[in-house]
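Hi there,

I know you've been waiting on this one. I reran it after we fixed the sequence typo, so this is the corrected version. Both the input and the resulting structure follow.
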Amino acid sequence: MTDSRPQTRHADLLAQMNDRTREVFRRVVEGYLDSGDPVGSRTLTRTMSEKVSAATIRNVMQDLEHLGLLDSPHVSAGRIPTQLGLRMFVDGLLEVGELTEDDRQRLDQTTGSDPDVASLLDRVGSALSGVTAGASLVLAPKHEAPIKHIEFVSLGPDRALVVLVFADGHVENRVFNPPPGQTPSSMREAVNFLNAMAEGRTLSELRAGVERQIAANRRDLDTLAAALIASGMAVWENEGGPYERLIVRGRANLLGSSAEAAELERIRSLFDDLERKRDIAEFLELAEEGAGVRIFIGSENKLFSLSGSSLVVSPYMNADRRIIGAVGVIGPTRLNYGRVVPIVDYTAQLIGRLLSGRT
């Protein structure tokens, strides 16, 4: 469940501001999100709803800086919002726009007759990246039909194929790296062990059962067979290798938008972590903690804290209204949240409809 206390504190702080202070704060944040540049007092004198002097605005800005909501990147420069300021703006002042017809059409055009779920999600992710000019993330659902049969096939000393046949006819073939020293007998033992448990169980249920059985029967089960089972199950959970649950598109949008070498390195670090699948589980947990679109700014979650980026993420559901995956956009902290939020929301609904077979 999402903690509502920060939003409550922000609402209280906003309520304590007078109209002038609130307007100065809002215009500084909106100006920064629009241009990426500090906003100065002279600029605000031309846009404020009431006639006020630059000196008066500077005093208000100093008060907001004292509250930790604004910052001065350089002496005599304008102000930019802090992470706390952006958070308060998003929670209390953000005006979410409507999805434009152009954005809707660009996303809708990703649909097609291709039955392959991976291809569909790849197209949606690419379109989402193009529409938002950010990096898109799509966490694909696991195939959760009951399992009919499992087979391991040796392809060499350090490569093996796992074949997973589901009761609904779906077949998955994955190449993985078995533990060193595996033998035909250890592979047969692993297959027999798994198939004795597998029929009628989903992959998640089988994994939980295997872990319990390995723990209970470790003395009786050959060590190599146990390692082979663990290795194969890891492949089915898609932790690494060419078959990934997490589809990342638009990486160049972030790399190309940052001129600072240190920022480039932080963003590369972010994507290296993603590609190693270190935090897939946490990514889904972030989406599942609250219904609808959620916004994480900067260091608010450890998954993206190194990059100084923001994440806008939403879960998507199947026909039974069960969360099966998530979709999101990574961008700079000065992301156009008002535009991106409805885009991510619509994309999550679109994926849910497509995977549920609804139009």
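Quick highlight: The radius of gyration is 25 Å.

Best,
R. S.
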